[in-house]
Structures are given as structure tokens and as C-alpha cells.
Amino acid sequence: MKQRLDEDTMAMRAAKELKDGDCANLGFGLPTLCALYVPQGIRFEAEAGILGYGPLVQANEVEKADWHYIDASGRFVTPAPGMACFNVVDSFIMIRSGRLISIMGGFQVSEKGDLANWNTGNGALGGTVGGAMDLAVGAKKVIIMMQHTTKDGKPKIVKKCSYPLTAKECVDLIITDLAVIEVIPRKGLRLQEVAPGWTPKEIQALTEARLIIPRDVKEIEL
User: Fold this and answer.
1) N or C: which end of the chain has fewer CB within 10 A?
2) For the chain, percent helix, then strand, then coil, each to nearest 5?
3) Is 17 an annotated catalytic residue?
């Protein structure tokens, strides 16, 4: 069986999208791992009210854990020079300002860039809405990190979302364990990169929505 990218490699690829001077909000789950793989000059924002925090606290660094400094997944983060703390109201003003890059998880993304990444929390998927709706419509760029298919092999990149929508036509880039896909408004989904050993044809077979496949598709680079 061909290998898919592991979570850390996905996080490394997503972190590559961040440039010096960017402010980014990392959503629950996979996206929080991006904090381990970013260059200097990136400032992370947490919904609870932190801007500019440092790396995640690792398992062998328990002495650094401080309940005042946690990310969207409840993981401890380290303070960094210049870090600012503020209340949740100010945090959401910032989130809605169009200044942040949002990296979130997803259950489904449609061919138009519609996002479904929440439910009531009572189903098998888990995950209530949190600040996802605000981040989906308020960020200047929305990057979705998720597995390419469900556990039973069904596509998560679909023609039309069957789960409740977080927001319509909000996604700019999809990073999965198999591919990097750009959402082009009014045109569709363009396949940019594939996981090592995989072909565009194989990626299309696992994707319900039609992919635009250019001639210069390359392997995922870190």
C-alpha cells in the first residue's frame, strides 16, 4: 500500500505557506502542530487571547507548562518576546479583521470552497463550532488541513457538502495527506502537488469533485 503523509509532514507543508510578518490562527487538532515547524517572524494568535506565542511545550518540558498559555487544542504554548495577552472580545475583533491567516481542520470541502468543519458535538464526528465561522469569513486566507478521505475511504473533497456548512466559498487552499489543492473562484479545484509515489489520476479517483490537473503537478515539497 502506498504511504500517505503523516500528521507532522502535513503540518510542515502547511507551515510553508506562512511568510515573515504573517499572523496566523491555528485551529483545533492538526493545525496546532504547525507551531512546531515555522520560521522566525510568524506570530500565532489563539482565540483565548494570545498573540505572538512561541513553540508548543513538549512532553519532556512539563516545567514550562502554564495554564495561562494554551492553544485551540488545549496544548500548552510557551511565551515569546513581545507576546500580548487580551480578552476574548478583542481576540474576535482581530479574527474578524481580515488580517489573519486561518489554518483549520475540516470534515468536507466542496468544489466551490464551501467548508464543513463542525457539528453539534453529539455525533461520531465530534467538534462543536467554536470560532470556526468567524475564522472562515474573517481571515484573509483560509487553509484547510485534513485527511483526503474518511476512515472508510469516502472522499472528503466533494461536489457539495453533506454536513452543515461553516461558511460558503471561504477556502483558499486544501492540504491533505495526499495532495495540495488550490481553490480557484468560479473555476474549481486545481491540483498543485501530490504525495510522493502518487499520481494525479490516483488522487482524482479519491476525490469526488473534479480536479483541474495542470501539466506541471509536482511532488509535495517541504
Assistant:
1) N
2) 20, 25, 55
3) no
Q: Does residue 100 register a pLDDT over 60?
A: yes
Q: Kindly list the domain boundaries of the chain, sorted by start residue.
A: 7-219
Distance CA 1, CA 4 (A): 9
Catalytic residue among 45, 47, 111, 193: 47
Condensed to tens digits (0 to 9), the pLDDT of residues 187-215 reads: 999 999 999 999 999 999 999 999 999 99
Report the C-alpha gap between 191 and 222 in whole angstroms: 17
Helix (H) or strand (E) holding 46: strand 43-46
Of the pLDDT bands very low, low, confident and very high (cuts 50, 70, 90), residue 71 is: confident
Q: Which helix (H) or strand (E) holds 88?
A: helix 88-95
Decide: helix, strand or coil at residue 138.
helix
Right CATH number for 7-219 from 1.20.120.660, 3.40.1080.10, 3.40.50.300, 3.40.190.80?
3.40.1080.10
